[in-house]
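In response to the reviewer comment on reproducibility (Comment 2.3), we provide here a single inverse folding case reported in full, input and output, so that an independent group could reproduce the run without further information from us. The structure tokens appear first.
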């Protein structure tokens, strides 16, 4: 068996293993793996290389060939990265799967992706079997709870025909505005560009190539953990410290004992860490060079840096843009506490457009449109939406990628995030399409109509707010609100369910009888106290159901 020709994720890993076989490749602190390991897990490049080869051989014996896709429901465990590399070695594409999704959501992703095989561990086997499309085989890893997973068994036959594009490394699903997740085709070039860009940023984002240890609690089903932190450590021959998720009570302990030199964050994390009682060892300036992320609350940015001694470097990118359009506040002026995410890097072309597509006045807010300035305008971007060429064309209308994010550019060229123009809720780093939640509500027999929007949340960044119009005979009570939320929890991943529900006789509409999204968002903000004025004609009560949103085990 030989590795595929041409640049690939596996080729970078193979070079690292050849040069630095004894260096640590992947580390999982005990707090992050206690449910399946009695000790912390540390994998080295050399041993991991041999294990990746063994897994690849098992896949090849089972009939998998270049062009197949394999869905991986392996959480943030070491098995995920080993299998990703093994499949990439064979020229296959992976479909990272969030096993916490509902059965309906899992079924959609597994069927839409044309996955030839689904790989999981025993903890998710029952749920995955329930969600499997017809004739799609499921492989449950042997000894998956051991620190070092054993190679996969041969696959059942027959396998689906290959459907991945040449050079495709992953198919990553992300929420859109049309209700169903879209599959973003990510090439090997996408991954390599991400790693090279990140490690070459400089400024506050310093990697030294000798002792880089990057910690992240972010899920491998997102491009940040899948492509950014992982590829950065492969590029610098560093160690990825992969946590299962963010645990505020053990966060600093995990970073200290794993000797992290930097970490990734979401905006919710600084808020939660600042809530802890001050301690004499709060400063981590001697160990941690920087935190890298997005969405820190302006009220918390300076306070976090002053208390913990670590700069929080805000950045902007999307799954679709990858390194093709990536902006980072890695140098001064960072405009701390102003939602600034840096200046346009060399090679990035951009426009700030109004609703008609024209240029806004200097300093005014508008939608950010991006592309590469020279050569291929889509280099480093995703390759398109799988099985949705129309959505791909719409995203690239006029030769520019339409981000859906409203920003403004200051006098010094710095970008400042203002809002999203798309109907999306950004909760704890997860993008939630309003129409997807509205569709789930609409399948309940008591619901005549609904409108979903984001509202500000101190811990989660944003929360899902739903206005609901009930059918005659249904009571606008707490019991009804709970029943509607429970209905959504069955149909959707837990984080997508409404955290707030308010009942109304009707919904604000435009002259063309469409939902007046701006009015709806403003009304919801007033109802949860984001604005001081009372809302004329608003529903008398809002049911706060946030505490009932629980992660599936």
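Designed residues, in position order:
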């Amino acid at each position: 068996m030989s590795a595929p020709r041409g640049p690939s994720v596996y080729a970078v890993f193979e070079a690292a293993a050849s040069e630095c076989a004894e260096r640590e490749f992947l580390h999982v602190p005990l707090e992050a793996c206690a449910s399946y390991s009695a000790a912390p897990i540390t994998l080295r490049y050399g041993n991991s290389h041999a294990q990746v080869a063994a897994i690849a051989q098992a896949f090849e014996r089972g009939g998998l060939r270049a062009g197949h896709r394999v869905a991986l429901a392996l959480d943030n465990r070491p098995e995920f990265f080993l299998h990703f590399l093994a499949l990439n070695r064979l020229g296959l594409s992976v479909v990272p799967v969030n096993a916490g999704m509902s059965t309906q959501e899992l079924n959609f992703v597994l069927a839409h992706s044309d996955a030839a095989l689904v790989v999981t561990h025993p903890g998710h086997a029952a749920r995955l079997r329930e969600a499997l499309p017809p004739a799609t085989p499921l492989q449950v890893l042997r000894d998956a709870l051991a620190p070092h997973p054993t190679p996969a068994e041969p696959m059942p036959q027959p396998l689906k025909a290959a459907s991945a594009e040449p050079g495709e490394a992953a198919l990553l699903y992300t929420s859109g505005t049309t209700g169903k997740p879209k599959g973003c085709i990510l090439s090997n070039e996408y991954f390599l560009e991400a790693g090279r860009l990140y490690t070459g940023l400089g400024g506050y984002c310093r990697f030294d190539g000798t002792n880089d240890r990057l910690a992240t609690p972010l899920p491998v089903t997102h491009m940040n953990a899948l492509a950014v932190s992982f590829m950065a450590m492969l590029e610098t021959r560093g160690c990825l410290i992969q946590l299962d998720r963010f645990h505020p009570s053990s966060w600093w302990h995990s970073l200290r004992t794993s000797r992290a030199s930097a970490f990734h964050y979401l905006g919710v994390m600084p808020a939660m860490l600042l809530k802890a009682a001050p301690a004499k060892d709060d400063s981590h300036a001697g160990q941690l060079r920087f935190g890298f992320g997005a969405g820190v609350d302006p009220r918390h940015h300076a306070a976090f840096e002053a208390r913990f001694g670590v700069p929080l470097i805000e950045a902007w990118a999307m799954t679709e843009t990858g390194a093709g359009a990536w902006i980072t506040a890695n140098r001064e002026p960072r405009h701390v506490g102003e939602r600034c995410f840096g200046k346009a890097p060399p090679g990035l072309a951009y426009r700030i457009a109004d609703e008609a597509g024209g240029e806004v006045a200097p300093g005014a807010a508008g939608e950010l449109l991006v592309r590469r300035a020279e050569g291929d305008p889509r280099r480093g971007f995703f390759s398109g939406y799988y099985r949705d060429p129309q959505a791909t064309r719409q995203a690239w209308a006029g030769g520019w990628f339409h981000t859906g994010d409203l920003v403004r550019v200051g006098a010094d060229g710095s970008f400042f995030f203002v809002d999203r123009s798309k109907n999306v809720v950004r909760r704890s780093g997860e993008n939630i399409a309003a129409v997807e939640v509205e569709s789930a509500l609409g399948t309940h027999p008591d619901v005549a109509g609904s409108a979903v929007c984001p509202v500000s949340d101190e811990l989660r960044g944003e929360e899902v707010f739903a206005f609901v119009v009930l059918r005659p005979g249904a009571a606008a009570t707490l019991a009804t609100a709970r029943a509607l939320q429970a209905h959504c929890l069955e149909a959707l991943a837990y984080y997508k369910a409404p955290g707030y529900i308010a009942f109304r006789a009707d919904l604000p509409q435009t002259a063309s009888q469409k939902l007046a999204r701006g009015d709806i968002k403003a009304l919801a903000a007033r109802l949860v106290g984001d604005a001081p004025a009372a809302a004329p004609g608003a529903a008398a009560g809002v049911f706060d159901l946030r505490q009932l949103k629980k992660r599936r085990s």
